[in-house]
Protein 1
Amino acid sequence: MDNLDDLKAIWHTAKTDALPSSQEMLQMIKKFRGQKLRNKWLMIALSLSLSIFLVSLLFTGHNKHYTTYIGGLLMALSAMLIAVTNLRSLKRFYQLDNCSNLEFVAFIEQTRQNQVYYYKKTMVVIYSLCLVGWMLFMYESLMKNPLWLVGTYSAFLIYMAVMWFIVRPRSFNKGAQKLKIMQQRLEGISNQLK
Amino acid sequence: MTHFEDLYNRYAPQIFRVCLGYTNDADQAKDLVQETFISVWKNLDGFRNQAQVSTWIFRIATNHCLRAIEVAKRMPAAELPFELAETVEESPEEKLAFLYRCIAELEETERIIISLELEGLPQAQIAEVVGLSSGNIRVKVHRIKDKLAQKFKAYGQFR
């Protein structure tokens, strides 16, 4: 059994009749198309809408304080950053339609690095812009009632602290294990392709 | 019949065998065939014959294989048991199952290369799919074939 032709003969005995027909496959595709990237598209649409809404609110409202404008623009900027980050990630996925295994492994490694960069840098900027922006934006409407000002700011700061110190690390740790396995596999596969 | 359906009817069995060679799991292989043809369907309009259509489809399929972490988890960590030689019959199904198990013990890229080779792709095309030179593929196929032959001999199969 050291002849490649013998192995090929065995290989071609595999039954493939359990595969769906082309019509069934088309139905499945129409059902599942875009599902994987749907969350990204949704995030882009939501953040862009939020950004447009905030800017229109600034231009149509009767605000007197500069803090409201600065805060609104900072929040709109953070929403734009989320949209741009997700758009860039989508663009990379759509460029993937014709690459070799070697290029694909490099792509996956780049994606992994991007995820780490997003967690360590981009998210910090987005959170900071959102935090400062919201506090400045709300100042004008809350300043007349100091009790409301302190209460709302405290609640918001607690919410942001929970998101930053508990939710964010937890969600990253979940993904980190997956990333670690992926990194180990990529190193192995890259070595095999040398 | 649409272009997509032609492609599906022509390549789905081949892609299934390659994915089965990589995963050694029929359900997982069917999922990978589905994922492959979802990608083909989505990108068919943008495909401008930069490469042969078969190279393009095999690239998509093998990249999906490489990406599937759950496949790696299911791969056998240890070598095949030696007792197997005494129990295995020589029916075509048994021979095929044994071939898959031997391929499953290979490294990821070796599994892809030998699956494409057994599927009958020219080595130049395998080189385009994997991203290595034809010479490199030729050497690798030779080595993988030796590894498989050793496994077959070691387990006393199909003498």
Note: The domain at 3-154 of chain B is CATH 1.20.140.160 (Butyryl-CoA Dehydrogenase, subunit A; domain 3).
Protein 2
Amino acid sequence: MKYLLLIYMGENAMSESERDQCYKDSTQLCHELSTKGQFVGANPLQPVATATSVRIREGRRMVTDGPFAETREQLGGYFLIDAPDLDEAIAVASRIPAAKKGTVEIRPVLEIPGIPRNEPAHAG
Amino acid sequence: MLYLCLGYQENEKLQSMSDDDRAALVDECKAYDRMLWENGYCLKGNALPPAAGAVTLRFEDGKVCVNEGPYAQTKEQLGGILLLEARDLNHAIQLMSQLPAMRRGGALEIRPVVANTEEGR
């Protein structure tokens, strides 16, 4: 079963050197998960100041600067993993380096058959 | 540029659709996904079941607390994510404005991904 792990943390919770170390440790975790066949994807996001939100109302598009919701901590990145159950997903979430400074939301992923993007990427 | 697109919707709205309407919407979504995929815009995407199934881990002073429910209680809840390759923000907005799933309301947050990381190229 796939799980999406969303990492929320204060954007100033880490110094630049802590952030560099966090990227290194996270990359290491990605490789570890990959050797166990549990890695699907992961990405850190640029600061929330770069977020854009789009809403469609009665066929009209509204574009605003900023995230969907203003929260004390901000979405800073995510991991997408393949885990046998929620307990294993929680165990992986507990090991995410950035998590120690914030909060991780774990969401099981819905498998919809017939969606091309969920199949392996074609070369090139 | 690589963008993470987060779609937020009211779950009740989707549940209140008739089966025929929902089936038609799913077909439209699949067709649009196929277009994104075939043009190399969509790298990865996943739909999520209702946020009631979320679990949240909070870390404080080295301790972990496990809570049921999503990170934030909002009227609309995260229902799907999509990793999008677009020329620039305007292109990303243009592609995401036409998502059939968002026509019934909701909000879509677009976040640029940090480059030179595992998937950020």
Note: The domain at 2-112 of chain B is CATH 3.30.70.1060 (Alpha-Beta Plaits).
